UniProtKB/TrEMBL annotation:
This is CsbD family protein. Residues 1-45 are annotated as: Disordered. InterPro entries: CsbD, YjbJ_sf. It comes from the Bacteria. It holds the Pfam family CsbD. Belongs to the UPF0337 (CsbD) family. Signal peptide: none annotated. Residues 1-18 have a biased composition (Basic and acidic residues).
Amino acid sequence: MGLADDARNKAEELKGQAKEAAGAATGNDELKGEGKADQAQAEVKQKVSEVADKVKDGVNEIKDKLTGK
């Protein structure tokens, strides 16, 4: 994907950490759970982005071999 996606995923992860910390500090289990969920979602998005990048690299490598580059 790209740097913009990585930045968005990191921002979402940080938002989740902040929510989790706020929930823990205030005793709000719902907010704490939302924070953990946000972090998990950001992690999944990052893994999908990494796989997409690897697939794209593989496709480009095959194209280069086929075109003799």
